[in-house]
Amino acid sequence: MPPYLLDANFFIEAHRKSYPLDVFPSFWEKIKTMADAGLICSIDKVKNELFKNEDALKTWCEQNLPDDFFKESATSLSEYAQVVNWAYAKLDHPYSQSALDIFMNADEADAFLVAFAKKHALVVVTNEVSAPDSKRNVKLPDACLPFGVRSLTPVQLFRELRTTI
């Protein structure tokens, strides 16, 4: 079974909205167990997003995720170029320039998540939902589709792994 590649919003939304660390420790223990087993991973760009705030989430990640959890995204630069070319071809059909600027920003994780998943045959896990007609945002599920990359929501991930929290 291939590992699953987690978007930053997997952690951020869980921490801030659905599964706060102090209320749902079983959720976070499950994430730690899955990470230790090599079922889930992420990339350095996601780490940068998670670690920009000095908060409990950053501390939890530092203390609970394996040292090799965040993979080097630069290993997928040729795939990243393909993702950027795809996105650029979508200018105004449907995406606006500002949506593409954000998606293609080399400091942002989304395009690199698609590229890394494509290169390593991983499944992207995100809270984003498809919005193919959106002009304002390039959603991960829509960017994954043309590259044959599967995307799941966190709930779908747990169901696919047949696990509970």
Task: Explain what the structure shows.
The chain is of the alpha/beta class and 165 residues long. It has one domain: 5'-nuclease (Rossmann fold). 50% of the residues lie in helices and 8% in strands. The protein contains nine helices and five strands, in the order E-H-H-E-H-H-E-H-H-H-E-H-E-H. Strands 3-2-1-4-5 form a five-stranded parallel beta sheet. Helix 5 (77-88) crosses helix 7 (110-120). The longest helix is centred in the N-terminal third of the chain and has 12 residues, at 25-36. The two termini are 20 Å apart. The model has no long low-confidence stretch (mean pLDDT 94).
Task: Supply the key terms.
single chain, 165 residues, alpha/beta, Rossmann fold, 5-stranded parallel beta sheet, 9 helices, 5 strands, 50% helix, 8% strand, globular
Give me a quick take on this structure.
This protein is an alpha/beta fold.
What number of domains? Answer: 1
Helix content: 40-55%
Label the CATH architecture: 3-Layer(aba) Sandwich
Give the strand order of the largest sheet, numbering strands 1, 2, ... along the chain. Answer: 3-2-1-4-5
Amount of beta strand: 5-15%
- Write down the secondary-structure element order: EHHEHHEHHHEHEH
Individual helix count: 9
- CATH fold category name: Rossmann fold
Low-confidence stretches: none
Largest sheet: 5 strands, parallel
Secondary structure tally: strands: 5
Would you tell me the structural class of the helices and strands?
alpha/beta
- What global shape is seen? globular
Element layout with pairings:
Blueprint: E1 4-6, H1 8-18, H2 25-36, E2 40-43, H3 44-51, H4 56-64, E3 70-71, H5 77-88, H6 97-104, H7 110-120, E4 123-125, H8 140-144, E5 151-152, H9 154-160
Parallel strand pairs: 1-2, 1-4, 2-3, 4-5
Helix pairs in contact: 5-7
